[in-house]
Amino acid sequence: MTRHFLTMTDLSVAELRSLLHRAAELKQRPAAAKPVLAGRTVALVFQKPSMRTRVAFEVAVLRLGGAAIYLGQDDIQLGQREPIQDVARVLSRYVDGIVVRTFGHADVEAFARYARCPVINGLSDAVHPCQALADLLTIQEAFGRLKALTVAYVGDGNNVLHSLVQGCAMLGLSLSAATPTGYRPNAALWAAAARDGKRHGATIAWTSHPAQAVRGADVVYTDVWTSMGQERERAVRLKAFRGYQINRSLLAKAKPGARIMHCLPAHRGEEITDDVMEHRRSLIFDQAENRLHAHAALLEFLFRR
């Protein structure tokens, strides 16, 4: 049966652990990648542009022996020139896999429903599972484990947080998130992650107070306050997120030696200060690199079945 990767919960806990283990192997020995994509083509359908997602997937496909075709919004115009179900049916007769990076999560689900090849969610407004894979790989790499750690997330209750909390809950990492009250994460998704976390020994908590969230944290994580497509909200968001900046003062409230993460791109001086971005305990650029290795492991997993 064709496997898709639309959200973290499409994986079992065992599959997620195995995938992270394989990603770590591929980082150490890129030549060990299996040529599962030899003679195969993967389409990158991007309604929203991204340097990291595009390059990481293109290089990962090449390392696995395949070819990648980039299709931007002007090439396909999702849901405008023709219905998504028609695009998915036609495109999946040309290519062997599809990575979709779009606004509405329903668009990714439609691709998976109508395509006859694996579909990967490269990002939707609801979740960002490929980023979470790289995040978990980065934490595992930095600490040598995932259990008995606490991640503090400060900022917007967005797609990055949604996938991060799902992954943390599955693997037994506690997560404490601080967002303004009006920018809380999705209630149903959060409640499900909290239940899952409890089963795996993790505490999932929300607060509106950044200092409370970071207290005792091993990792302090943030993301932009204004994402692509939210530009008209910028002035309102800057006011709402005042006090949620990751700076030296807030970082000092975390555990001594706490590591710093950001999924990029960063708006230096807004959600994170320049000196914290460049801090010796920052994992931010390791995190960016790990997109490549996590994507390669994911493609191996989906195409070797």
List the helices and strands and how they pair.
Blueprint (H helix, E strand, L loop, with lengths): L12 H16 L12 E6 L4 H13 L3 E6 H4 L7 H11 L2 E5 L3 H10 L4 E5 L5 H15 L6 E5 L4 H13 L2 E5 L8 H13 L4 E4 L2 H5 L4 E4 L11 H7 L7 H4 L7 E4 L11 H4 L6 H20 L2
Parallel strand pairs: 1-2, 1-3, 3-4, 5-6, 5-8, 6-7, 8-9
Helix pairs in contact: 1-6, 1-13, 2-13, 4-5, 6-7, 6-13, 7-8
Describe the structure.
By secondary structure, the protein is an alpha/beta fold. It folds into 2 domains: 8-128 and 290-303, Aspartate/ornithine carbamoyltransferase (Rossmann fold, 3-Layer(aba) Sandwich); 131-287, Aspartate/ornithine carbamoyltransferase (Rossmann fold, 3-Layer(aba) Sandwich), CATH 3.40.50. Helices cover 44% and strands 14% of the residues. The chain has 13 helices and 9 strands. Strands 7-6-5-8-9 form a 5-stranded parallel sheet. It has a 4-stranded parallel sheet with strand order 2-1-3-4, with helices on both faces. The longest helix has 20 residues, at 284-303. The protein is globular and about 55 Å long. It starts with 12 loop residues before the first helix and ends with a helix. The mean pLDDT is 96.
Low-confidence stretches: none
CATH architecture of the largest domain: 3-Layer(aba) Sandwich
- What does the oligomeric state look like here? single chain
Compute the number of structural domains.
2
